[in-house]
Each structure stands twice: as structure tokens, then as C-alpha cells.
Amino acid sequence: MTDVILETSHLTKEFKGFTAVNDVSLQVERGHIHALIGPNGAGKTTCFNLLTKFLVPTSGAIFFNGRDITAAKPAQIARQGIIRSFQISAVFPHLTVMQNVRIGLQRALGTSFHFWKKEASLSCLNDRAMELLLQVDLREFADTVTVDLPYGRKRALEIATTLAMEPELMLLDEPTQGMGHEDVGRVTDLIKKVSAGRTILMVEHNMSVVSGICDKITVLQRGAVLAEGRYEEVASNPQVMEAYMGTISGALEGAH
């Protein structure tokens, strides 16, 4: 019997007559890297917004570790261990790389809002922050002001700040979007590395990334599940190739 960490049952979201997510029943297995893919407008990010309660479902249910979290607020979702990243880089640009990670670590101290305290009071977090930076290959950038980091390194920092929250389930929204080939490779390796002992659900357009690291793939089209399975099964599905109208079906084949 599979160990399911996250499950949706008939999840639906309608916006004034338009159905963005349509009867999606999803099971994410513990310890897996699971990808949501699909053409633009397929409902992938809306699905993420429902899971983290940035949007309220029209109908359906969401379960995390067997508990119904459909009515939970975003902060409650985060406290339970579901932490997400966003398509747009979400770091503090004028703080150093180290300071960004320490903000994520502050939650464990119960001092998240004590911004008037002396910075020295957070020095107890430095060792753990450096461990996280080492994990994401950013140790040499610890004192760099974040605005000066290359784009790919900013995404790595986001992963580090996400890890600082000690997530049980990481939701990564387009982690390699807008990156050059070298950065894509680095961030892909990083996701694989940090997935040890964690579960990751990711929205991703880059099929070479998906084929390289994902255990299971769910394909959405017009808000509904079109296909699901291992990469090889999904890549050879004629409906999936038709949905992508040749734009990504070639990439699907080429990524074998």
C-alpha cells in the first residue's frame, strides 16, 4: 500500500463560469518528486494556489497526512509543513544571502516578528544557516547582497530559505523558469539533492528536468487530469502529444 502524503479529491475551482481546475483527484506519494505539467493555461499554478489556500476551492477536498485541510488558512498550511516557492523570485533583495536564510530559520525561535531586536540575537542561527547554504552551494555567497546574485543563484537561495522552514512537502512553482542551460542543470541537481527525506511537488515546463528527476507526472489540460504515470508512460501518450500540439511533444521525445 502506498504512503500518500497529499491527496486531492474532486478538486474544482470556478471563476465566474470559467473552470480553472476541474475535478482533479491527485495522490502525491511520500518521498517522491511529483511533477504537474501541461500547456499554458492548464491550471497548474491555480492548483498550487488551492493547495496552499491562496485560493479557496469551489468544491472538492484536500488531505495532508490524512487530515482534511480544505478549510485551513495559508499560515496553518505552512505550519503543518507545506512550504512553497513562487514563479517570481521571492527573496529580500537588499539583505545578504545569510540574512535571508536566517529569516526562514527565525520561526523556530518564535521571534519571527522581533525585527527591533539586535541582529546579534540571531547569531545562534548562523551555523544552521551556513549548513543550508552549503547544501545549495551558496556558502561562498553568504555575505553577498542578494540583489547582486545571478538569477540561478537567487533560485537556489529560495530553495535554501524554503528548507529553513523544515518542510515536509515542498511545492516548487517553475523552479527553472527563465534560466540558461548551466543554471537549469545546477538547480535540477539541487532539487534532486534536497529531495532526500522529503516530498516535492513541482510545476515545471522543462521536460528534460521532469524526465531526469521525477518519479511520477500528472498532466493537466484545461484544468483536468489528462494523463498520469511515469515519464515514459506520459511521453508516449498520444493525447499528451496532441495537447501540446507538437511544441513539447518533440521535447518529450527528445528528452528520452
Describe the structure.
By secondary structure, the chain is α/β, with parallel strands linked by helices. The protein folds into two domains: 1-81 and 168-256, Rossmann fold (3-Layer(aba) Sandwich); 91-166, no CATH class. It has helices at 44-51, 74-80, 97-105, 126-135, 151-164, 181-194, 207-213, 231-235, 238-243, 249-254; strands at residues 4-15, 18-29, 33-37, 59-64, 67-68, 82-84, 169-173, 199-203, 216-221, 224-229. Helix 4 packs across helix 5 (151-164). The chain is globular and about 50 Å long.
Count every helix, treating DSSP H or I runs of 4 or more residues as helices. Answer: 10
What is the radius of gyration computed over CA atoms, rounded to a whole number of angstroms? 19 Å
Q: Can you give the mean pLDDT?
A: 85
Describe the global form. globular
The CA-CA distance between the termini, in Å, is 29 Å
Profile the largest sheet: 6 strands, mixed
- In N-to-C order, the SSE pattern is EEEHEEHEHHHEHEHEEHHH
Secondary-structure arrangement, i.e. CATH architecture of the largest domain: 3-Layer(aba) Sandwich
Classify the secondary structure makeup into a structural class. Answer: alpha/beta
The CATH superfamily of the largest domain bears the name P-loop containing nucleotide triphosphate hydrolases
Biggest sheet strand order reads: 6-7-8-3-9-10
CATH fold call of the largest domain: Rossmann fold
Question: Beta-strand percentage?
Answer: 15-25%
